[in-house]
Description:
Oligomer: single chain
Bound molecules: 2'-monophosphoadenosine-5'-diphosphate
Amino acid sequence: MSRYAVFGNPISHSQSPAIHRQFAKQTGVTLSYDRQQIDVGKFHSAAEIFFSEGGAGLNVTVPFKLDAFEYAEELSDRAAQAGAVNTLIFNNGVIKGDNTDGEGLLRDLKHNLQWPIEQKNILLLGAGGAVRGVLGALLSASPASLIIANRTEAKAQELVLRFEQAAEKAKCKMVACGLEQLSTPFDLVINGTSASLGGELPPIATSVVVDSLCYDMMYGKDPTAFLSWAKSSAARDTADGLGMLVEQAAESFYLWCGVRPNTAPVIQFVRNSL
Ligand code: ATR
């Protein structure tokens, strides 16, 4: 039986084992999938033990995506572009690092929600690891413009520089700004800040989300603070990041097992279990 696991800290609330067990049941693949809480600074040694004992693949979550990037012996293009790894694959004696977060977001937006991106004006809130992990994928869907707005504007500017070539290739106008500079509405607003974790809101004007589609990369049993605020500020529609979570897992499952699971029933399964 192939062994998989997710490494993170904290990890007790991770839905990944439940998601991958659902995928395995659905596709007839036999696997085991556990969660492991790893001490900060111990990622490398824990991964060494896991793979030396026959582990076939790992998911990696906060705060170890940079450690996994450094640990990987080979990188996919999208992992190299993001500078972060959320999936490790042991194949022919080599540990390859990939990043499925951006693909997960894109599949949720385009296939599940049917929210268009091509030629649309997009606002991305935040400039941390979560945003860096999805920027390449968003640009590949050719939006007309992509504004990266962050509390600390300099970090948004760094991201614009890092992804300059990808934006040129996509013919997308990408600029950075601070949160307080925003005023006009966007077609799509994606909250990639960690503010929702603490029940907080990025301080932006309500005019920014009028008639917009609003997405929060966070999720929970109840709507996040950002999505409640967007709804009461006349957003056209809202969605949380549960679909992204399941879609990034499906992409990892595909990399490991070569089978693409049907995500819709698994999204519903996880929603019901929250
Ligand atoms: P992650 O890996 O989840 O992206 P991170 O790298 O620590 O975590 O980044 C957190 C992001 O959320 C940052 O963009 C942060 O803004 P700063 O760069 O100014 O710190 C943003 N953020 C966190 N709490 C916020 C809040 N209450 N309001 C606005 N932005 C917030």
